[in-house]
Amino acid sequence: MGSRLTEEQAAFVAAVRDFAKRECGTREQRGTLSADGHEAHHPQVYGKLANLGWLGVCLPEEYEGSGGGLADACLFLEETSYGMVPCGGFVTTVITAKAYERFGTGRQRQEVLPGAARGDVLAIAMSEPEAGSDVGALRCRARRQPDGTWLIDGQKTWISNAHLARSILLVARTGEDKHGGLTMFHLPAGTPGVRVRGIGTMRGREVNDVYLTGVRLPADAVVGQVNDGWRQLMAGLNHERLFLAANMLGLARRAFDDAVTYVRGREQFGRPVGSFQALRHRIADLATEIECARLLVREVALDCDARPDTLFPREASMAKLKATEIAKRAALEGMQMMGGYGYTTEFDMERHLRTAVVSTVYGGTSEIQRDVIGKSYGL
Prior knowledge:
The chain is 50% helix and 15% strand. It is of the alpha+beta class. A 4-stranded mixed β-sheet has the order 1-4-5-8, covered by helices on one side. A 4-stranded antiparallel β-sheet has the order 2-3-7-6, with no helix packed on it. Strand 6 (194-201) and strand 7 (204-217) form a beta hairpin. Helix 4 runs antiparallel to helix 9 (277-306). It is globular and about 80 Å long.
């Protein structure tokens, strides 16, 4: 979009940037709000974003949203990521909210969507110890009882923001067919039989194991149709991959700008290190790749908004692949160009790397994205 931003979008971007500068503009502020980069979500800051009406950026107006599109949500994600705003709960929330918007009953939408706009965090639980990239292999089972309720047992793992979530969109097995036997369920926080255990990572606590033991859900907890969960998941891939791509695009831009600022000011051999050809060429390559990622993410978002009922598996996978790979590369290159200082906690670069390095794994690995793209050409 670049020059194609509408006046409203340009004003929105400017407002988000101003918020980020005011709330997170100094290293001290960022360290305090994020526990030195080990907490991705700060409830008070998230509440301020909700009060500004930004968390409902792409939700329907009847659910306290702004009625915006995916392009607007991507702009928000890009700018909050660039500004290092600790709102890590938003990515899973907006991905999950779009699934409720599309497949939830009227009651479910009314229960979930206004809360998401007001600051509730949502999570989605698909992955299991033996079902990561192969989602169809999941074993967490929901059994329909004679009275119509559901009895659920199993384990989920790597569930982002489950410890913060007001509710979880749970994907469980209800039939024997690998892909035709999956169902989505609305799982409110605090449901008896659910235990959430954090998993330590390079960034602190982001992801969790979720254990379900004798969990009972009412008949109307089904989101969408029984045994139609796989199709529903596939229908949401545009959203998930685009949002993750936009988030990492912002990080790539930030890592790049931080590196450029450093090499302009750092002198060795009597001149700024950025003036040496080896670093100039690295900067030139990164700048070009980031701009390619920006154009790709924004063009795919516009296409999705223009045709909301059309799947763009190739294009969404391209956006996720490109943005996450360049974010990881920008952080690695930035650390290399900064030398030992890039490795210290005095600068943000080590935090950029800790954030970016897993982005090529979650939400579908880079290998899976390449496979999707290759298959789209009949290979």
